[in-house]
Design brief:
- It contains no helices and 6 strands.
- By secondary structure, the protein is an all-beta fold.
- The protein has one domain: Immunoglobulin-like (Sandwich).
- The strands form 2 sheets. A 4-stranded antiparallel beta sheet has the order 1-2-3-6, with no helix packed on it.
Length: 84
């Protein structure tokens, strides 16, 4: 996606088994949420917000595990709770 401000238009969350990414592009909000097949080391993983793309680097918790079936599955219906 082009035309987003990486300081104000991008939010993300990373846990041992989930990744959430939200990018605001004007009035449109793009959401990407994956539940990961394998656990990752959060403190050694990273999300980098670059000019035209987002880079996600995950460090596997189990060093012998193979991630050849993809990273995880999409969560199609989710909502972010209102701050209250």
């Amino acid at each position: 996606m082009k035309g987003y401000n990486k300081l104000s238009d991008v939010r993300y969350g990373l846990s041992e088994n989930e990744l959430l990414l939200e990018i605001r592009q004007g009035p449109i909000v793009h959401r990407f949420c994956k539940t990961l097949f394998k656990e990752n080391e959060v403190d050694q993983s990273s999300v980098e917000l670059l000019v035209d793309f987002v880079s996600v680097k995950l460090r596997k918790k189990d060093k012998d595990a193979v991630w050849d079936q993809g990273v995880g599955y999409d969560i199609s219906e989710f909502s972010i709770p209102n701050i209250g």
